[in-house]
Amino acid sequence: MDGELRSHFIASADGLQLHALTLGAANALTPVVCLPGLSRPARDFVVLARHLNRSGGRRIVLMDYRGRGGSDWDPDWTHYTMAVEHGDLVRVLDALEIAKAIFIGLSRGGLHALTLSAAQPHRVAGIVLNDVGPQLEAQGLAHIKNYIGKLPLLRDIDAAIAHYKRAMGARFPAVSDEDWRFYASNSLNITPERLRLSYDPQLARTLDSFDPSAPLPDMWPLFEAIEAPILALRGENSDLLSPKAHEQMARRNPRCELHVVPGQGHAPLLLDAPTLNRIGAFISGIAG
């Protein structure tokens, strides 16, 4: 096993540099690919990646979408779409010579895993969905719309931690001070002048047209067609994935297992030992 994270930069079809981190060398085991949430960076998965690599020896890949983390920002914000990001994902997989993988998707990343399973099912050996599914709650999406792209002037990381605790603490009572620091550090680019968001604020414009009263797409057929094993995580206090929808996932696809993360909302941080171990056990059960 190789404990060093390595950065890779892959050119997108339109010339942007896409960033990915890898942990561990390619081997006979099926690799794991981690896909972040809408505004989240690949770094969110570092603790999980080290846990999986240490316990199972698999190569782990963590991807930054365009406009997030270490990837280039797109000069045209209208390119921040699922379709464009899907093309970027396939390009990264091809560049890293990943023919098949187990995908861990946080929120938007889970939707990318579902989309890939429909478009290229031969590439998907298993899926871990973190607080996302085929039926989402409009109030959860409205909540995301309300905060994305916004950041008050913060003087240092301690002020940032206090900010995120105020904004999220009621839904995340189980999160430790150490984990809040990890989350806040990943959310920001820290410079001597000020703290900035770790993503392009123009990303918020992609939600300008969202109408919480409009019906959301029906993704159940997509989910029911998945033939790979699935582990569906739900934060106990999530406002995006309801308990009813979560339970339905196991009923409507017999390959789906469920796990609830206590004391966390949307989306679980994947830092607590029980959740890390549950994901590890699920992945260990996948052949290859």
UniProtKB/TrEMBL annotation:
<keyword id="KW-0378">Hydrolase</keyword>
<dbReference type="InterPro" id="IPR000073">
    <property type="entry name" value="AB_hydrolase_1"/>
</dbReference>
<feature type="domain" description="AB hydrolase-1">
    <location>
        <begin position="31"/>
        <end position="271"/>
    </location>
</feature>
<protein>
    <submittedName>
        <fullName>Alpha/beta fold hydrolase</fullName>
    </submittedName>
</protein>
<dbReference type="GO" id="GO:0016787">
    <property type="term" value="F:hydrolase activity"/>
</dbReference>
<dbReference type="InterPro" id="IPR029058">
    <property type="entry name" value="AB_hydrolase_fold"/>
</dbReference>
<dbReference type="Pfam" id="PF00561">
    <property type="entry name" value="Abhydrolase_1"/>
</dbReference>
<dbReference type="InterPro" id="IPR050228">
    <property type="entry name" value="Carboxylesterase_BioH"/>
</dbReference>
